[in-house]
Amino acid sequence: MVKYIAQRVFYMILTLFIIASLTFFLMKLIPGTPFKMGEKMSDAQMEVMLEKYDLDKPVPVQYVSYMTNILKGDLGTSFQFGDAEVSELIGNRIGPSALLGFQALLVGSLIGTLLGIIGALKQNTWADYSSTFVAVLGKSIPSFVFAGLLQYYVGVKLGWFPVAFWKGPEYTVLPTIALAMFPIAITARFMRTEMIEVLSSDYITLAKAKGSSYFDIIFKHALRNALIPVITVLGPLAVSLMTGSLVIEKIFSVPGIGEQFVTSVQVNDYSVIMGTTLLFAFLFIMIILVVDILYGLIDPRIRLAGGKQ
Amino acid sequence: MEHTEKISKDQFEPAIIDSKKSEEISKPSLNFWQDGWLRLRKNKGAVISLVVIILLTILALIGPMISNYEFDRQKTAHANLPPRIPVLENISWLPFDGMRTLNNGTQVNVYEQKDIEDYYWFGTDNLGRDQFSRVWKGTQISLYIAFLAAAIDMIIGVAFGVISGYFGGRIDTFMQRIIEILSGIPNLVVVILMILILEPGIISITIALTITGWVSMARVVRAQVLKLKGQEFVMASRTLGASHSKIMFKHLIPNLAGVIIINTMFTIPNAIFFEAFLSFIGLGLQEPLASLGTLIDAGFKTMRAFPYQMLIPAVVISVIMIAFNMIADGVRDALDPKMRD
């Protein structure tokens, strides 16, 4: 186990290093200047600006200083957003993104689990078919399409919830629903399969035979074991939440990391793009690692030791 | 037991046990594909989806041609017209009568107001371009990118997986390290970075999608090759002196066809999603080209005033995504019943 974790952490660091280098060199290849008034500047002004941000130094020197700064937790300064520190800029925006992601994950996995249980208990009835239908919709319809429709019909037409911005709990409702669609779909499908398998196992028959109540059988015996493999979908779910957050924060004007990233991409703000990319990559790799380790710890039937995958 | 009748003995005759009969094959034997097709045919959702996809593909190909207007013809006098279709315009509950609901709730016929005789079946956008030809042109480009990306993913993934699994040893270890690192990078990040350097266009979007897209295919193929290469038919072929490439192409890849198709079917909707996603965050195709993503993005900006500009491409992309996902599920269940979830 220790050897396995050590190996995984080594690969994690290697991957992060490669991603950081890759983003750095790719950013150097991007055409256009990163400055707000780039086209209107004279050559002299441009030189001053380049010197200010150390962009006049040779690329290898920039690379070394960039990498050492990352190790110190310094992601550089933004070109566009009033010289703000990137780490500060991102830090200020983590709150809304994290809240939205957490709410979507919570709502998504609860509703998804419920739909999955219903599907498994009422197999091949209308309840099962409609829960499968919801799952297919959630998996297929792109989150931004769904978000746009929600915003128009529930926000504008019905006027039940605020359409955009971030001023209180009621403002989080629509973006949370939009973001939760994919988690609902994935958990529901997975839960249904697992529940069906668990419900047909011997220990459930035993529980029925000894006269446990229906409720006890479902929630105490079946659900607990069915939940274990669901941990494996946490990885894809986290990725979907990150991808979704980009567009959904843009649609609902949520002041989060995703919205910041989209804006930075549109105005060529290298340092913010690099910083956010690194943050996304780091989160992604951490989640995959934690999921793999958790899985081995929770379910002793799965052996991770020896590094054989 | 009132109706018990006595059946006379002479109605029975002893059956002759014919050992040849019991060995007889009563139904035609089916090969892998026939068997899979039989199973797929039973799956109503998959069959309907297949029909839907074929219809949409035909529409995407001929749609821009059957419309009276070019997809990039601008006519500002005809900007933001609501949909109007001959005949259907007389059915009041259908939204094809050229009526527009204003903010205060009154309905006006924009065509009569502006004195326009033309019929724009899906309306026009803010530059007066025909939405009907734009939507189908966009579908065409979205499908093209998706199929191209899926094909490239398939070629790279299969080649990588077969070589890695077949040769094993140090080659395998090295190739698996590459995959391990690549799969650690979120593909969202790679795709966005690639688009930032390459000018957005059909080819660059396709390339960006394939950079990490082939990894899952390579993994599945390698796992299957590891299982297959120890089997007797491969050993027999090698003993008879077949070259490595012959074993790979003649023996391994045909046996992998099932998993390859299943995996490709899941790649296509994924590629459609990413293309639309890129367009939506402003990294997609440039005007006047259209894809479903750029149309949704453009429609989204004017959604409150002209909802049909967003609604129609949104419905098209949703239908395509649902249909592809259902076909992919159906094909997987049909070709590999063990993988059913």
Report a brief summary of the structure.
The complex is a heterodimer of chains A (309) and B (341). Chain A has 309 residues and is mostly helical.
What does the model show?
The complex is a heterodimer of chains A (309) and B (341). Chain A has helices at residues 2-29, 43-52, 59-71, 86-121, 126-140, 143-157, 173-199, 202-209, 214-230, 234-251, 257-267, 270-298. With 309 residues, chain A is mainly alpha-helical. Chain A has a domain at 89-259: MetI-like fold. The two termini of chain A are 13 Å apart. Chain B is flat. A two-stranded antiparallel sheet of chain B has the order 1-2. In chain B, 64% of the residues lie in helices and 2% in strands. With 341 residues, chain B is mainly alpha-helical. Chain B has a single domain (37-72, 131-339), classed as Orthogonal Bundle (MetI-like fold), CATH 1.10.3720. Chain B has helices at 19-23, 32-42, 44-66, 110-114, 131-167, 169-184, 187-197, 202-213, 215-228, 232-239, 244-280, 292-301, 308-335, and strands spanning 99-101, 107-109. The A-B interface holds A 11-12, 14-15, 18-19, 22-23, 26-27, 29-30, 136-137, 139-142, 144-145, 148-149, 151-152, 156, 189-190, 193, 239, 242-243, 246-247, 250-251, 262, 265-266, 273, 277, 280-281, 284-285, 288 and B 180-181, 184-186, 188-189, 192-194, 196-197, 269, 273, 276-277, 280-283, 296, 300, 303-304, 307, 310, 314, 317-318, 321-322, 324-326, 341.
Biggest interface and which pair forms it? Answer: A-B, 45 and 35 residues
Assign an overall shape of chain A: flat
CATH superfamily descriptor of the domain at 89-259 in chain A: MetI-like
CATH topology of chain B, anyone? Answer: MetI-like fold
What is the CATH architecture assignment of chain B?
Orthogonal Bundle
Strand proportion of chain A, as a percent range, falls in under 5%
CATH superfamily of chain B: MetI-like
Task: Average the pLDDT over all residues of chain B and give the rounded result.
Answer: 81
Helix content of chain A: over 70%
- Output mean pLDDT of chain A: 80
